[in-house]
Amino acid sequence: MTTAYFVQCVISFVVAIGSVALGVIYLPIDPWVRAFFAVSVLYTVTSTFTLAKCVRDRQEIASMASRVDQARLDKLLTEHDPYKVDA
């Protein structure tokens, strides 16, 4: 996942929330506006799931890098023998 994709997900989420807010503010009992509201809610739900997936993927990448570093350190520590004498 690239930084650009993550930013796109965040922007998509913000646009979705903004469109729902505008839909709620300007919601007379008009079928066109109701349709706008329905599409905005649908867009908000889908972009919320996308944003959640992006955040989860970033967290998994960070924890995997941490685990790899920990494994390297563990290997170095197990291979080190403080009592070994080089002759």
TrEMBL record:
Keyword Transmembrane: yes
Domain named YiaAB two helix: residues: 5-57
Membrane spanning stretches: 5-29, 35-55
Keyword annotations from UniProtKB, A to Z: Membrane, Transmembrane, Transmembrane helix
Key word Transmembrane present: yes
Protein name as catalogued: YiaAB two helix domain-containing protein
Organism: Sinosporangium siamense
